[in-house]
Amino acid sequence: MTTTTTGPLALPSGTDTGRPNPLGAFARPTAATGWRSWVSTVDHKRIGIMYGASALIFFVIGGIEALLIRLQLAQPDGVLLSADAYNQVYTMHGTTMVFLVVMPIGAAFMNYLIPLQIGARDVAFPRLNALSFWIFLGGGILLNSSWLLGGGADGGWFNYAPNNGVIYSPSRGIDFWNMGLIIAGIASLAGAINLIVTCLNMRAPGMKLFRMPVFTWMGLVTQFLLLFAIPVLTAAQFLLLFDRLFGARFFDVDAGADPLLWEHLFWIFGHPEVYIMVLPAFGVISEIIPVFSRKPLFGYPFMVFSGIAIGFMGWGVWAHHMFASGVGPLSVAAFSISTMFIAVPTGVKIFNWLATMWGGRLKFEAPLLYSVGLVTMFTIGGLSGVTHAVAASDTQQTDTYYIVAHFHYVLFGGALFGFVGGWYFWWPKVFGYKLGDKVGKVNFWILLVGFNLTFGPMHILGLQGMPRRTYTYRDGYGFNLWNFVSTIGAFTIATSFLIFFANILTSRRKAKASNLAMAADPWDARSLEWTIQSPTPAHNFDTSPTVHRLDDFWHRKYQENAEGKVVRIARSEDLVQPGDPTGVHLPSPSYWPLVIAVGLPFVGWGLIFNLWLCLVGGLLIVAGIYGWILEPADAPAAESGHHPDTGPGQPASDQAEAADGDRHDRDEGTESEEAALVD
Amino acid sequence: MTDTTTNERLAAAEALEQRAGKEAAERSAVAGAYADDPAHDHHITNTGISNPKLAMWVFLGSECLLFGGLISTFLLYKNNNLAGGPTPHDVYDIELTSISSFVLLMSSLTMVLAVSAIQRGEQARMRLWLVSTALLGGTFIGGQAYEFQVFVKEGLGFTTNSAGSAFFALTGFHGVHVTIGIVMLLSTVILSAVGRIPRARAEAVEIVGLYWHFVDIVWVLIFTVVYLIP
Predict the structure, then answer these.
(1) Which residues pair with A674 in a beta bridge?
(2) Structural domain for A222, as ranges
């Protein structure tokens, strides 16, 4: 029995099929520059950059919402916002910052760096990666479109039942919140599948799991958390959607429904979500601190295992968000203890960072400053977190500004400080120029002062009993001073970010004027992404690197001499790859991810306004999926023979992309790398 | 007498060997069409599992939590008819659901046969088994639609009470999963008919199969938890 091999995909890669558009599907786009190349890109680096850029735009939106909150609360009896508008603003501030800022910035780092750090050509499913980004963007736009279409969600970022029901929140805001986050959840899920498969399957020769940089490890743990946490939120949001749009009785207390169901489902997602936000930043500073301490990371296995332990234990602490909801003394005791326990692996990390710096030759450049900022600020947040673990004390702190102070120290002090440090650190690799270090330091100190001015006083306000989520307070409660200080702090933070944006512009202009090429390894760093040119060439590695140990690049630069002193044995410039794309096969770009992603928000708007819009969206999605499956694997005219990245027969599963060409050059790669090692 | 038996056996063994040799040659010829050279092997991964298959496994891991959330919700609400109306237990027709459950389980068998057929390169037989799988799945969906319609007539609708909402949400989500599975199966049949699933791509069918078996296993759980346990 012979099998048919007549389908266009059955041909070896790069061969002209003579039928550029089989089955009437579009040819794959070929543009390498201009906006078309960006909307059709499947390059993990460009997708990472787009994640970062859109996150920054959402950051500006969320930041403006934060400033509105602080302006309203600057003085007693504030009149800037009505109670209703205030509810919308703080809800959207929280939702935007969590889902559209911190998570995508993490995704930006992970998308860009994980393939580079494991020595891969791209992620496992390049088109799926593009789909993740566009869906995320669509979800974010849908969520924020609520401002123009009748007002934002007003139930807090957690939208507790029964306040999230139609009776208590009759506007459309929570529907937008539901749809936007379900759609963004699809993006996170697809991204998680993609990066998990990438980490597990596409490591370069010799890159064993326990040779992966800690950032990649934390990324992997984060993706597993996303994989398992997102569907719980999605399930809860579907139930809420059914309640609000179709009259189901999941959270309808009149019908005897249990509002605690929402709280449980939300926090089973919500607590892992905390680690989803902060672990990538932990990974970032675990890369920065060794480089600027001129020492290997202290206790690599402990760093990895504490990250994994956080990933596991993060699932057993959710009810500490619910101590005041009457879950019963046994649950409270159990979750109190588990919450105290989870401080242990976090503490391990803090001490490992300190031990890495201890005795190191510290170079206090901007990235290290931000990293130290993370360690200190996160420690403060962690300590106030342990006070919540004591249920008796937590009962008093619940719903006060003490909580607000805590989670901003953890998420702003933890995640965002690390990410800004990461920007200063990897900027030369991504864009080919360094951000000004002096401005970076000024930027850091202003941020640090502003941050502590904003959120430090909230501890006091909280302990004095100022409740969260109230749009104003009266004179004479002793809240005035600290609220005013906090508002000044918020504008200081805004100033520091304006300086950051200005720094980007001026550094870019300077780099253009000086016209000097960026060194491949400007920081004398340790991991694989520094062994290739800056900015990263489109094809990443000329040949797959072979890895012999942890921090391989560092060990190729430095070795112990006879007296046991560490000495430099090779210059970075001699070790880095020249950036020669000959013979490299890259996955072809595609429009279909964008088509599918455009369809999804229409389904969301359709469910809210008019079901006919759902039809439009649905058709776009179906067309996108089938176009995706049927599109030719290659641009037939592409000069370097592209590689078929599509299995022909995995319909409708979105899983249709097979490995890209990174295995292709493995054999040649091994030899040349060995030669480099002899040098 | 013994001689002839030995001879027969020898001949049979020889024929078997020849067939195996022919199949091996065929397999390498098919595989050859997909690789420019021996070094260009897409299936070398760190885990030894191909990327799409690993992705499907990872995705199914995520689905467990989705159904976990919905099943928990049902368990919380299954006797909650405070808003009036019957609970799902009052209206179950266990015989009907048992039959449609059996039909769905049998579809896993036909799915396995389809995968086995394409692994042996038997296109037509694979399509036959895929279509049977889709038909069995369709029968199950038909049974579910009928069941839903009867329940609504007997007074248990989606909005009647919390138990009803939870029941329809859980079984409905499962039904949607089966329906997506059927679409995947039929798409596979069509792709195979136009020659885009040669034997070397048998794994694509296997991956669709993974999804299908998962949906079946979830139904075993739902049938037990929702229908059988009082």
Answers:
(1) none
(2) 43-531+578-585+660-668
Alpha-carbon gap, residue A543 to A204, rounded angstroms = 10
Question: How many CB atoms sit inside 10 A of residue B71's CB?
Answer: 18
Q: Are B158 and A623 in contact (CB under 8 A)?
A: no
For A521-536, what is each residue's pLDDT tens digit?
999 999 999 999 999 9
Chains A & B: contacts with CB separation below 8 Å = 214
Interface of B with A in 88-117 (CB under 8 A): none
Residues 169-198 of A with CB under 8 A from B: 189, 192-194, 196-197
- Cβ B51–A658 below 8 Å, yes or no? yes
Q: pTM here? A: 0.88
| Amino acid letter, A39 | V
CB contact under 8 A, B55 and A189: no
Across the interface, do A649 and B201 touch by the CB < 8 Å criterion? yes
Domain limits for position B92: 51-228
User: Are B73 and A5 a contacting pair at CB < 8 A?
Assistant: no
Closest CB to A10: pick one of B161, B198, B204: B198
Which of these ranges, A61-70, A152-161, B1-10, has the smallest mean pLDDT? B1-10
Query: Does residue B46 form part of some domain?
Result: no
Contact residues, chain A, for B208 at CB < 8 Å: 649-651, 653
Specify the CATH number for the domain of residue A167.
Answer: 1.20.210.10
| Amino acid at position A606, single letter | G
Q: Are residues B83 and B183 in the same domain?
A: yes
Domain count, chain A: 1
Which CATH number does the domain housing residue B209 bear? 1.20.120.80
What are the E-state strand segments in A231-275? none
Please tell me whether residues B20 and B89 are part of one structural domain.
no
In this predicted structure, which of B33-37, B188-192, B197-201 has the lowest mean pLDDT? B33-37
Same domain, residue pair B64 and B27? no
Q: How confident is the model at residue A5 (pLDDT cuts 50, 70, 90)?
A: very low
Interface check B207 vs A, CB under 8 A: yes
A10 falls within a domain: no
Alpha helices in A435-543 (DSSP H): 437-463, 480-514
pLDDT band at A480 (very low <50, low <70, confident <90, very high): very high
Q: Answer yes or no: are the C-beta atoms of A293 and A430 closer than 8 Å.
A: no
Q: Do B67 and B162 share a domain, yes or no?
A: yes
Indicate whether B181 and B115 sit together in one domain.
yes
Q: What is the ipTM of this complex?
A: 0.88
Cα four-point dihedral sign A285, A286, A288, A293: positive
Residues A548-560, mean pLDDT to the nearest whole number:
93
B38 touches chain A (CB under 8 A): no
